[in-house]
Design a protein that fits this description.
Strand content: under 5%
Distance between the termini: 63 Å
Radius of gyration: 19 Å
Number of helices: 10
Oligomer: single chain
Strand order of the largest sheet: 1-2
């Protein structure tokens, strides 16, 4: 018996042990599991821990589950886009995501895209994150903070501290 959910029978797709085995090997295979098992917290946690993108396919209730979402963004920060609107407005969750990948701020709530501290964290991680912050923050930070360059790895160098010493920040 193979644990490939994409070719599994409906009975296998609803077999908890079979599905657990499959998502441990390939987290996104949860998209082929039965609705019942896509809504199972343990199955979802195994899936997102293997591949954060699996958050896209878990049950809707689990996209609002803090533990599941944190596990997903721990593996793949962009998974924030699949979290519930309430969790995309949770400062701790968004901060964890932008610390890992600055561009994750794109998927934060409008309120948090206006949060200066979060914006700075995101921009320091990847200077391109500036374009996903609020218009007001873009106007404020563009001249003062956005003076670095984006490196191929997404790392960024900033002259913010130098600007601060010079009085231009």
């Amino acid at each position: 018996m193979t644990d490939d959910l994409s070719t599994a029978s409906p009975k296998q797709r609803d077999n908890r042990e079979f599905v657990l085995s499959a998502v441990r090997a390939c987290g996104v295979s949860i998209k082929y599991a039965s609705d019942r098992l896509r809504g199972d917290t343990e199955v979802a946690l195994h899936a997102v821990r293997e591949n954060g993108r699996a958050l896209e396919y878990v049950g809707d209730d689990l996209r609002a589950n803090r533990k599941v979402v944190l596990a997903a963004i721990g593996r793949w920060a962009i998974a924030l886009q699949f979290a519930s609107p309430e969790l995309r407005d949770d400062r701790d969750i968004v901060l964890k995501a932008v610390r890992k990948w600055g561009l994750a701020i794109k998927h934060a709530s409008d309120r948090l895209r206006s949060d200066r501290e979060l914006a700075i964290v995101a921009i320091r991680r990847n200077s391109a994150a500036l374009k996903y912050t609020s218009d007001a923050l873009q106007a404020e930070l563009e001249g003062n903070l956005y003076t670095g360059r984006q490196l191929g790895t997404g790392a960024v160098t900033l002259a913010y501290e130098a600007n601060k010493r010079d009085g231009t920040a």
